[in-house]
Design brief:
It holds the Pfam family FAD_binding_4. GO terms for molecular function: FAD binding; oxidoreductase activity. The protein is of the alpha+beta class and 510 residues long. It folds into 3 domains: 132 residues, Uridine Diphospho-n-acetylenolpyruvylglucosamine Reductase, domain 2 (2-Layer Sandwich), CATH 3.30.43.10; 111 residues, Uridine Diphospho-n-acetylenolpyruvylglucosamine Reductase, domain 3; 194 residues, Vanillyl-alcohol Oxidase, Chain A, domain 3 (3-Layer(aba) Sandwich), CATH 3.40.462. The chain is built from 14 helices and 19 strands. Strands 12, 13, 14, 15, 16, 17, 18 and 19 form an 8-stranded antiparallel β-sheet that branches. The chain has a 5-stranded antiparallel β-sheet with strand order 5-6-10-8-9. Helix 1 runs antiparallel to helix 3 and helix 8 runs antiparallel to helix 10. The structure holds flavin-adenine dinucleotide (FAD). Flavin-adenine dinucleotide (FAD) binds next to strand 3, helix 5 and strand 10.
Length: 510
């Protein structure tokens, strides 16, 4: 343990809803509408003992092996930092767990004192500051073990895909990953996981075979189809407030190379490519997964000249098979317009991240998503008009074509948004335009209403909180089944993602 909690005028009682600290100018701390639990003794009687962050940190420091940090500790800022720099995390105590026992201890101590617990691995999913008092950082749970014979990877709760893919590739195997190697495996899988090979292989969480989960009562549970099947069902897509996963086990497929990459089209071809690609998706083969990114790049020297100050389209393509057949399947897309660059080629599985080339450095972002059931010419016109307008507040629009194995090889899990034609994500990276984005996004979704799918997967909903256009991440039936599991494994509501009122906006009210 290091660092004492800075002087806080309200720290006479457990700060279930912490006030901004004097040195926190500018830190947004949302008012919680969530059910409040009063601090309780082990016997369940209300406690009168008052506790500070320093007290909790001292208590944790006795039995937790990893670092326990209060806000004035030198390593605190690095421990809580999110990938999205627009979000600044200010838990009262941050704990870097070294193993499942560390996590269980934190949960038990937090429960005893009625404090809330949040979890962060990479901060790729950070959309708003956490409002729990304790943040468990899982990134030291970094073990990866490949059982080549069983074709199963055991993956620590803090691992990124970048560590799993090369380890599996040594055995000619591949996990079904997302677009970015830097995203955390567990956070991605708990949301479902839609990657660049999704039309061929389905949701990534369909490949989960088991997990080690610390429950809201501090128990370390081995979870699979046979053990705690309700929790196993829920962690594959239910995402939040279900427990802290310290290890997850996924089935691997035999695949070493794919035919994939991206075509880069210039500004003048954006309309032709978007319309042509949308038409092509109507008859695209299931074995091919494609997506289209329309992105506006700032005029910065650090960018390559072909991107600097330009709006371009990137058409991504992935086919897990023979390169000649892949080239044949890619031919209609290559014919849409003359690509300025053609980087579709045989790729080693370890280079899968090059298909999307997602940003690797932390930066500020505001993103929202919606799933579309169809993308007819009228909807394409709205998108073109919106995103190519010179004064648009947006930096990017991404359209991913799904379907195929997502539906055809579906397993029974909490995943929402399975039956989707287009997964749309859009937003900006320029903080000076962030204030314009929520209302612009609402207006856009109003216009797209006729084609909005009933569910948008939770990994894609983005920052919709307070949005006039709430999107469901699950059907009502799934949302209530997830809520039931949350209640069973976290009866005191210890795990804290966001307050319940806002949670309703994505379809799961406890
Ligand atoms: C650049 C980029 C690319 C992306 N690409 C895809 C994609 O292709 N497909 C897709 O489906 N999604 C994608 N996403 C969304 C991403 O999968 C989610 O944001 C995911 O939650 C990130 O997990 P994380 O651990 O990296 O982030 P974090 O912000 O650390 O975690 C997000 C949430 O995941 C949960 N979580 C994380 N670790 C644990 C744990 N050990 N135990 C329990 N809960 C945990 C917590 O609820 C946490 O709040 C992308 C996001 C970004 C920023």
């Amino acid at each position: 343990m290091s660092g004492g909690y800075c002087a806080h005028p309200t720290l006479g009682q457990p700060p279930l809803e912490p006030e901004p600290r004097p040195d926190d100018a500018g830190c947004r701390r949302p008012a919680s509408r969530r059910r409040r639990s009063r601090p309780r003794s082990i016997e369940g009687e209300p406690m009168t003992v008052q506790i500070t962050a320093e007290d909790i940190a001292q208590e944790l420091g006795i039995s937790v092996r990893g670092p326990v940090l209060t806000a004035d500790a030198p390593d605190y800022a690095a421990e809580v930092a999110a990938f999205n720099l627009a979000v600044s995390q200010h838990p009262l105590v941050a704990v870097g767990a070294l193993d499942a026992e560390d996590v269980a201890t934190v949960v038990q101590v937090a429960r005893l004192h009625g404090w809330k617990v949040a979890v962060q691995t990479t901060g790729h999913g950070a959309m708003h500051p956490i409002d729990a008092q304790i943040l468990i950082s899982t990134r030291r749970l970094d073990a990866v073990d490949i059982d080549a014979q069983a074709k199963v990877a055991r993956i620590g709760g803090g691992v990124r895909w970048a560590a799993v893919v090369p380890a599996a590739a040594e055995h000619g195997l591949l996990p079904i990953t997302g677009s970015s190697p830097n995203v955390g495996v567990v956070g991605y899988l708990m949301g479902g996981g839609l990657g660049p090979l999704a039309r061929s292989f389905g949701y990534s969480s369909d490949y989960v075979v088991g997990a080690t989960v610390v429950s809201g009562t501090g128990e370390i549970l081995e979870v699979s189809a046979d053990a705690h099947p309700d929790l196993f069902w829920a962690i594959r897509g239910g995402k939040y407030e279900l427990g802290i996963v310290t290890e997850i086990r996924v089935r691997l497929i035999e695949l070493s190379t794919i035919y994939g990459g991206a075509l880069l089209f210039g500004t003048d071809d954006i309309e032709r490519v978007l319309r042509g690609w949308a038409e092509w998706t109507l008859s695209a083969p299931d074995a091919v997964t494609t997506s289209l990114l329309v992105a506006k790049f700032p005029d910065l020297d650090l960018l390559p000249p072909f991107l600097r100050g330009r709006q371009v389209a990137m058409l991504r393509f992935a086919y897990p098979g023979d390169p000649d057949e892949g080239a044949r399947l890619a031919a209609p897309l290559r014919a849409l317009a003359t690509a300025e660059q053609d980087a579709i080629r045989p790729l080693a599985s370890t280079d899968l991240g090059q298909i999307h080339n997602d940003p690797t450095d932390p930066g500020p972002s505001w993103l929202r998503g919606a799933f579309l059931s169809a993308l007819p010419a009228e909807a394409a016109s709205i998108l073109l008009e919106t995103f190519t307008a010179p004064d648009a507040p947006y930096t990017m629009l991404e359209l991913r074509h799904y379907g195929g194995a997502l539906v055809e090889s579906a397993v029974d899990s909490a995943v929402g948004g399975r039956d989707v034609h287009i997964a749309m994500g859009f937003g900006g990276f320029n903080p000076t335009r962030f204030a314009d984005l929520p209302s612009a996004a609402d207006a856009l979704l109003d216009r797209l209403e006729p084609w909005l799918a009933p569910e948008t997967n939770i990994n894609f909903t983005g920052d919709q909180f307070g949005a006039r256009h709430p999107l469901a991440a699950w059907s009502d039936e799934k949302a209530s089944r997830i809520a039931g599991v949350q209640g069973r494994y976290d009866p005191d509501g210890l795990f804290h993602w966001w307050d319940a009122g806002e949670r309703g906006a994505v379809g799961a009210e406890r």
